[in-house]
Amino acid sequence: MSTTVTNKPTLSTHISTSPSTTKMDVTAPINPSDLFSAKGLLVVITGGGSGLGLAIASALFQNGASKIYLLGRRQNVLEDAIKKLEASPSAPKSSIPVLGAITCDVANQESVSAAVERIKSETGYVDVLINNAGVIGPLNGPDMYKTESIEQLRDSMLKGWYGWAQTFAINTQSVVGVSAAFLPLLEAADVRRGWQAGRVRGGPGDPRVTGKGTPREQDKSALKRLGYDEDDDRLAHIITVASVASFMRYSIAGLAYNATKAAAAQLGKILSSILAEWGVRSNVICPGPYPSEMTAGIEGRYGTDQVPQGRMGNLNDISSLALFLVGKGGAYINGTMQITDGGRIGVFPATY
Ligand SMILES: NC(=O)c1ccc[n+]([C@@H]2O[C@H](COP(=O)([O-])OP(=O)(O)OC[C@H]3O[C@@H](n4cnc5c(N)ncnc54)[C@H](OP(=O)(O)O)[C@@H]3O)[C@@H](O)[C@H]2O)c1
Q1: What does the buried/exposed string (b/e) look like for 200-216 if buried means 16 or more CB atoms within 10 Å of the residue's CB?
Q2: For the chain, what percentages of helix, strand and coil (3-state, to nearest 5) are there?
Q3: Which terminus, N or C, of the chain has the lesser number of Cβ atoms within 10 Å?
Q4: Cβ(50)–Cβ(75) below 8 Å
Q5: In DSSP terms, which residues pair with 200 in a beta bridge?
Q6: Which residue's CA is minimally distant from atom 1 of ligand 1?
């Protein structure tokens, strides 16, 4: 076996790909509670105090996560969210607190670094980082389509112009800033699970020939020590919450929201490519309308020409997607965009 690694490899006990991994034993047990579980995961969720972030936190909390840090700017919102989940009849029985609040502004890199340092000192690794924080930005949206003169259209398009920079900082730039800041802790999660550290180059070899490259190696005995299944080969994971607005050509919230979310989705895909040799996965969730602070006031009943499913997304919809992505059953999902919108982008002009 030849392995090219540039950073602190300890391969003495690493197990290479065994012949059994090239066959599927279709008679092996298939257990949804193993495949779609957050058991033992250390998770960070930005914007975790409300809406979709809190719904994802609840799904992972109820399904075995060992620690979930909720990050946001309002400490009281984070603390209330934790109290609510802990007091719920669905809360797991645990004497060790699972949920933690960290005040953090994702648009401020010093604030992000402080959160990283705190998590580093408390736990030392992060299995899953969820870039969920977001704002709606300047609202020029549907009103643009009601204008009667070119001057009105001009003014409508320029509405909230000076709010674009902050919207970009929170919705887009933070995807890079937060992901980059957490990389050492994501790598530490890989090492904890027995993966070799550092950059693993896929060659040498002819890239057109499949099945002969240099994979990252995993010491399976580490999994056993941690109490994880032997077939658990999940790599550390970044999940970015973009939007169906990333693809819509009809601007409902505002042009800044569309632009920042299109860019966030693209960055989530780029991260998967940048991090391919570094043992970190990246996927993107693109929700349609869900109840949250951001969508407060929306009635939530949609015609078939708006959301074919006829309703907003609900807790089942987002929880099952989150558990799929973070669970063992999602280990092979990397570089994807997962749309959860009841069919919305199929009935609007859209680019997806
Ligand atoms: N709900 C939908 O229909 C929908 C659809 C598509 C995509 N999304 C996306 O889903 C994500 C969650 O939004 P939501 O709908 O759940 O709305 P939400 O309830 O308003 O949640 C947004 C969260 O982000 C946090 N946040 C905002 N700016 C932040 C900053 N600078 N630093 C740290 N945290 C920040 C907010 O907390 P603080 O204000 O306390 O910081 C809040 O908890 C967003 O990225 C949104 O664009 C939502």
Answers
A1: beeeeeeeeeeeeebeb
A2: 40, 15, 45
A3: N
A4: no
A5: 5
A6: 290
- Residue 48 alpha carbon to ligand 1 centre in Å: 8
Distance 293 CA to ligand 1 centre (A): 8
Q: How far is the CA of 132 from the centre of ligand 1 (A)?
A: 6
Which atom of ligand 1 is least distant from the CA of 51?
16
- CB 89: neighbour CB atoms within 10 A? 4
**Taking the alpha carbons of 287, 292, 294, 296 in that order, is the dihedral positive or negative?**
positive
Of 261, 238, 313, nearest to 135 (Cα)? 261
In whole angstroms, how far apart are CA 252 and each of 93, 291, 311, 338?
42, 16, 17, 20
**Contacting residues for 158 by C-beta, under 8 A, at least 6 apart:** 140
By residue count, the chain amounts to: 352
**Which atom number of ligand 1 is nearest to the Cα of residue 170?**
31
- Any atom of ligand 1 within 6 Å of the Cβ of 330: no
Beta-bridge partner residues of 248: 350
DSSP for 231-278, written as a single string: T--PPEEEEEE--GGGTBSS-SS-HHHHHHHHHHHHHHHHHHHHTGGG
The string of pLDDT tens digits covering residues 175-189 is: 999 999 999 999 999
* Structure tokens, 280: 């970190």
Classify burial at 57, counting beta carbons within 10 Å of its beta carbon; exposed 0-12, middle 13-18, buried 19 or more: buried
Atom of ligand 1 nearest to the CA of 106: 32
Q: 238 pairs with which residues across the strands?
A: 129, 282
Question: What is the pLDDT, as a whole number, of residue 206?
Answer: 66
For 250-296, the pLDDT digits (tens) are 999 999 999 999 999 999 999 999 999 999 999 999 999 999 999 99
- Indicate left, alpha or beta for 186 from its phi (over 0: left) and psi (-120 to 50: alpha): alpha
Q: Which domains does the chain have, with CATH numbers?
A: 34-203+215-346 (3.40.50.720)
- Residue 340 reports pLDDT greater than 80: yes
Tokens 């999660």, located at residue? 189
